[in-house]
C-alpha cells in the first residue's frame, strides 16, 4: 500500500489558525477573503432560514456577495420524520440538511452556536434561560466581529415571532449589531494575540413590513415602482435569473436537458431539503418571484423606494457592499437619530444627522431635512470638512399630526458631486396615553425595547393581553402616561363586552405632571354561566385629556373554570367511571384549537358545540388527581413504539396540562414550571400488551415516563385505556374505532411544586391523527396531521399556561414540606457540541471562525499525520491539555445528499435534488457514517507535550481515504477554547 504521508512543512501550511495579528499595538482586525461575510442571516433552527436561498444565490452569482448564516440551535428538539436519530445525532443530521439547502447559493458558512433546542414555547425570557443569554450574545458578537458582515437579516424580535426561540433569535440581531460596535461589550475579544476589532453592521432587516403595491415578479429589477405600505424601505431581488445549475436529462418536470434552472427553482429545491422535518423532494417547476426585505435600521446612505434605483436587484447592497448610486464613497456612514421616539403633536423634538467619512474628511456640503406635511424644521445646515459630524435640527410636528402612527423624517446630504439619503421614524402618541399595565412576557418585551434596543421600538410595543376565568373577577390596571409638556388630567373608560361588569366603567385620574404616570385600576367581572363560544373578547380603553383622547384595546381570553370534587375512596384506575368516582362537573373537550380543517365532525375528532363530543371528569383523593377522559374518534392512528412514545401530537393521544401554582406565565417560565403528560391510548409494544404509554413534554422535566425507557420523571402515574390496537400500521388492515376512554392517576407529589388549591392551571387536550399514509402508499406515518381539541381551546394553548382553565380543589391542602417554588427545569435531550461535527470542523478550518463562536486557541500543533499500512499516525504537540477529536472522512462533506434520485446526469453541483421518476425522493442511509462519508473517528485526551496517536485502519478504510480523504480534528481545552484542523490526506481522483 502506498504510504500517504503529510510532511511537517506541508502541515504548517494547511493547519488553520486564526489570522496572525501584531503583538504590541495591534492593527485593526480585518477579515480576509476566507472569513469575510457580506450578508449575514440569523435564525433559531435549521429550516427557519430558507427565505435567503434564492436571494443569496442571485447576489452571489451576479454581485459576488457572500452570505452566511448564524444558526443558534441545530434543532435537536424537533421531530425526525425519516430516521431514529434524536438529540445530538439529530442535530448532526439537521446541520447537513441546512447545508444542502444553501450550498448551491454559495452560502457555505453556517455558524452553529450550539445552543439547546428545548421545546416549543412563546417566551423569550425562557429561551434566554435555556440558551444562557450572555454567552449566546458573546458568540454572536464574536462571529460578527470576526466575519464583519455589512448586512444582517433575520426574524423579528417582537412577540409576533411566536416561538420564543424565534423572538430571541430576532433580539440577537439587534443586540449583536449593538454589541459588535461597542468596545465595552465583550472587551476580551478585542485584546490579545487574536484580538478582533469592533464592527459596525451597515443595514438591518429584522421585523419590518414588506407589504405594499407595485413591482413585478416577471422581470429583473423587480421592485421597480414598488410603494411600501409602511415606513420601511423595501428591497427586492428577482429570482427568475438563470442559475449555473442545469436541468438533468429525463427530469419529471419535462424541462429541456442542459438548460438552466432559475434561482427560484434552486431555492424551492433547497427549501425542500429537510426530510427530517417532514419535507419531501420538490418535484414542481418554479415560477420566478420577487422576495423582499424590509429595512429596519441603516447606518449608511440608501435609496428610498421613491427612487428608481431602489427597484434594482442589488439595491439592498447599496451603501454596504456596493457604493450608493448617490455617489458617496462606500463606507460612508450616514444615519438619523432623535431626542425621543414617542412625540406629541405640536411639541418640538431634536433630530441629529450623523456622518462619518470612510477615510479622510467628509466632502463639504449641506444637509436638508424633510418632514411630513404641516410639520416644521430648521436648516439646511452646513456639513464641515471633518472626519465626522453630528448635525442637529429642531422638528415640530403638526398640531394635527395623527396619533398612534409612525412619521418618517428624511435627511439629504448634498455635496457638489454626490448626495446621500437616509430616513428614520418617530411615533406620534396622544398627549396622555392610558395603557393596560403589561405583565409577564409583554412587560419583559417592552423593557427590552426601552433598555436594550430602543431603535426596535419602531416595530411596535407589546399588545395588551390577559386572561380571566368564567365567573371570576380580575384587576385591570391602566397606566396613564403624560407624554406632553403640560400637566394633564381626565378620565379612563373601559368599553365592556357582553357578560362583563366592572366596579366602574369610567374613573378619573389625578393631574399627571409632564413625563409622569399614574395607575387607575378597575375590577372587571365575567358573568358568563358557561364558556362563551368565542374565548377572546376586546376591551377598548379610552383615556381623555385636555383636547383629545388616547386609546388602546385589551384582549381578554375567557378560560373555563371548575371546582375539582373530592372522593373519599380513591377511584380505581380501570378505564371505567364507576359510581361515585367522579361526582364533579363534566368538562367539555369538544372545541378545536388547531387543525380544524382535518376533522369532519363529532364522530371523527369529538368536536361538538353541545358537549356530546369528547369529555373529561376530574376528581381528587388523598394526594392525587384522577382523570376520566372520553375521546370520540373514527380511526386509530399510527401506533408508536416505546422509542416513539414522545411527541404525542404525532399520534392519537391526550395531553393533561397542570400548572400547580397557576403562575408559570407570570414567573416568565412558560411551561417549564408545569407538568404536561402526553398519554397514548395504545402502542406498538408487545411486551406491554400494546397498551397505553405516556411521557412528559415541554415541561419541568420532559422525557419518557413509562415502559422500559421510563426516566423516572412521573413516578406513581397510572394509566388505564379501553383502546385495543388493531395490530398493524398498514392501512390495508381496518383501523376503524369509535374512540377510547382513559383513566389516569397523577400523584400531586410528581408535580414540580405544591398545588395551590385556589389557583391550579388545568387543561386537557385530545389530539386526533387518522390516516397519515403518504399519497399512493399504505403505511401510516408518525407525523403530525392532528386535529387538536381542548377544554380551553385557544391557539398555541399548549405553551400558554395563563390561558389554560382555572381549577380549585376545595378541601385540599398540600403537605407542609412540599416546595411552592418549582425546581429548575430539566431538559433531557442535550444538543450537539460543534467540536463533534465533521462539517463544522471543516468549516472552521476553512474560514477561521472558531467552532460555535467560542474562544480560539492555538495550543495544539499537528507535527505529522500520515497513513501507513494498518494505521494512521498522528504526532501532536499540545502546550496545554485538552480533548482532541479526530474524524477521517472520504468525499465532499459540503452538502451530503438528502434524497435519492434516478437522474443519471445529475452530478454535483446539483446534489440529487431533481427527480427523474415519480418514485425519486427516497432517503439515503445517514447513520452511522454520514452516508458513507465518515470512515473512522477517534478521540484522545492530550496532555502537555508531544504525543503519538495511532488510529488502526482496515484495508477497506484505507482504500476509502484515497478518495478525497481528509483528517478533521477539533481540539477543546478545559476552559472551552477551540481549534480546528483540516488536513487533506489525498488528492481528488
Ligand atoms: Ca375507574
Ligand atoms: Ca378521527
Ligand atoms: Ca384518530
UniProtKB/TrEMBL annotation:
GO biological process, one term: glycoside metabolic process
Record CDD domains: CBM9_like_4
Chain residue ranges for the region called Disordered: 803-837
Annotated signal sequence range: 1-24
Pfam family, one: CBM9_1
Ranges annotated as biased composition (Pro residues): 812-827
Biased composition (Polar residues): 828-837
Coiled coil: none
Transmembrane segments: none
Keywords: Signal, Zinc
Alphabetized InterPro entries for the sequence: Carb-bd_dom_fam9, GlcNAc_PI_deacetylase-related, LmbE-like_dom_sf
Key word Zinc present: yes
Domain Carbohydrate-binding residues, every copy: 607-809
Any GO MF annotation of the entry: carbohydrate binding
Name of the protein described by the UniProt record: Carbohydrate-binding domain-containing protein
Species whose genome carries this gene: Kribbella italica
